[in-house]
Amino acid sequence: MTDLSQAKDAEEILAFISARVRSLGFDFCAYGARDPLPVTRPSFTLHSNYPANWQKHYVAENYFARDPVVRYGVTYTSPLIWPVNARTDEAFWQDAKGHGLAHGWSQPIRDKQGRIAMWSFARGADPISTSEISASESRLIFLAHAGHSASSRLIPAHGHGIHVDHFTAREKEVLKWAADGKTAIEIASILSISERTITFHMQNIMEKLNSVNKTQAIVKAVLLGVIYEMS
């Protein structure tokens, strides 16, 4: 396989990325993604070549709920060099180090379908230096985003099948003002169209988002990036 476009499954993507980051000084890599819907039961995707003993231990200790890298990834989009918060998360980092994951670099990703994802590259020795980051970070960022794009192609965002392109410009305008707390009458005044037309657009929006009311439609639109995309 010469490029990610030829990857047939997640294992091939992982192997491709792993080979590239190994040349950049990392022994392991991992990819995780969380779909935005359903809100109460979001689905997860996880693939890694982390040591098997660490993967079992991670699950047994329920580290996902308190992993500082995961915590960072759901909040920020800039790269992270770890370990971080060495004092408050000392037990976690000592455990990770004991399993060969002493130092790492992670890239959180947000895509247009509302998926939150992250690639992490790790090794057991040698902290990541400033000079190493200067020399390699642009390639690491590229590999993380390329890997995510390939994974998203093979594993579409779970179940919802909703895309930003499904909405007209007017529908996005109505959504934006509705999310800002405006009533149908107020939105009609802002956009210089009738209240009846606003109600028509909102009904179409609710149908496209498979929502039973305006509130649910707005929540889904935010999670899926429909409103964000137009800002």
UniProtKB/TrEMBL annotation:
It comes from the Bacteria. Keywords: DNA-binding, Transcription, Transcription regulation. SUPFAM superfamilies: C-terminal effector domain of the bipartite response regulators, Pheromone-binding domain of LuxR-like quorum-sensing transcription factors. GO terms for molecular function: DNA binding. This is LuxR family transcriptional regulator. GO terms for biological process: regulation of DNA-templated transcription. The keyword Membrane does not apply. Pfam families: Autoind_bind, GerE.
